[in-house]
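Researcher: Here's my situation. A collaborator sent me these components and asked whether they could plausibly form a single complex. I don't have experimental data yet, so a predicted model of the whole assembly would be a useful starting point for our discussion.
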Amino acid sequence: MADEMDGLDFPPEHDVPIPYRHRIGTYYQTLGYGKPYRWAQYTHVPFTPLKKPLKDSRVALVTTAAPYQPDKGDQGPGAPYNAAAKFYKVYTQSIEGEPDVRISHIGIDRKHTTAEDINTWFPLKQLKRLEKEGRFKELAPEFIGAPTNRSQKVTIEQDCVDILAHVHRLGADVAVIAAN
Amino acid sequence: MSLVARHLEANGIPTVIMGCAKDLVEFCGVPRFLFSDFPLGNPAGRPNDVASQEFTMELALKVLESAICSRTTVQNPLRWRENGDWKLDFSNIEQLSAEEIARRKAEFDANKEVAKNQRVAAGVAKAD
């Protein structure tokens, strides 16, 4: 229901980006898990300008999605959270065809989305279309899968290093990162 | 994924993150971020809506090529749906009964156990 003030038709105040840090912190504390998760935080942020136009660039796609594993239970669409589908090492896979990657191992919004359409979390099809149209030079021949480790130390010291090595090996100039 | 973007960028690879958790990505601080105000799990557009997926991907590339400095966030103008009440639900303790909280705690503990066994099997954790 919209709020009416002085005849102005504002949306409800909660219709803003969800404050996840507060929500998730309060949620797990109420469930009894004590000290809230310390989210990564930095005051300085690196920035690298494009070295060449996109039309001359090779693009790597990085995803948090996991390869479908038939022996690991329900992975969707509509799957409940499935910790068995988690993975712990960076992987790469050919972009040929239609790779089957899922997000049942991730804390997505299971009330309001069902992961029924892969193109909402893994934009390979859209990138292939844009490659064909010449929007950028080409896609890297493999996409890169990133584990969603709770440990930031593991992410920084292991996964980030592995992903950068793959980006270099694949000769990519830029990276599109689809988070979940 | 914010940490990945930072690491790539610090090593000379320009990046753009597509994501739905505005506060978490900005809390970390990333170079370029296309934020879609959609439920978690939809960083690349709305389901079964190719036009929204095309629009979102093109917007991400525009952010990638046009950002002039770090912490550039662009908000996708698309709405998940006109009514924004879905935002009240995710992990919102105020919406849950005591029974539901207990059920979720049991579910979470069970998942933690599964994940622990996975880590042991993957060789990244020791068994108890």
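Model: Some features of this prediction you could bring to your collaborator: Chain A touches chain B through 85 residues (CB under 8 Å). The first strand of chain A starts at residue 3 and ends at 5.
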